[in-house]
Amino acid sequence: PLGFDNDVYQSMGWALYAYHALPYLGSWDHNFPGIVFVHWSSIALFGSSDFGFRLFDYFAHIAIVVLYYFLLRHWLAKRECLIAVIVYATYYPAGQWGLAGERDEYVVFFLLAATLTYLQIFNRHTGNNPSLTSARLGAIAIGLFSGITILFRPTYVFFPLSFAVLMLSGTTPQPVPAPAGVGARRKNKILNFAILTTGAILPMAALLT
After folding, report:
1. What does the DSSP assignment read for the chain?
2. pLDDT digit string, tens, across residues 117-134
3. Which end of the chain is more exposed for a tag (fewer CB within 10 A), N or C?
């Protein structure tokens, strides 16, 4: 069954799905509305029922486990990664209805996606510098993924801020062909920072408009 929080957001998701009633206008909760759109998605895909949301949550966590595995593969062997994701997949249902379907679990999906994108494109230890196109697309993707987390909790603004600091720091490799001169490299960092920041702002801007 759905827990208390799930019931509230399921009703808000239904109001959004059936009546196009936006959070804060057609329904009310004192939290940021990101989780309402999760429930809207589950209703659109599997109907408005406890089983429908749990099924949506099941598929979401399959995706989280996959992302988690590939993230760990940057540092650990395959066997260790497999053990880690099995432990996670075992622990999650042990929390039963009081833990399942809470907003922070979906934030994990977007945070993993942003982190994987950064490591795949900007990880200095791969030995491959990104192309200019990959760097720009990576910056906007990281901004969007991390920016979506703010829709769940305002304190998650520190996620895109952390990636933005990395973009400005010397730890992020330059694209190929590398900009010539210190001034050109600085401009490239600032441009990637601006692109990431724009991506992070877009989800909230889209909601407010």
Report:
1. ---HHHHHHHHHHHHHHHH---BTTTB--SS-THHHHHHHHHHHHH-SSHHHHHHHHHHHHHHHHHHHHHHHTTTS-HHHHHHHHHHHHHHHHHTHHHHTT-HHHHHHHHHHHHHHHHHHHH-GGGS-PPBHHHHHHHHHHHHHHHHHHHTT-GGGGHHHHHHHHHHHSTTSPPPBSPPSSHHHHHHHHHHHHHHHHHHHHHHHHHHH-
2. 999 888 755 555 677 788
3. C
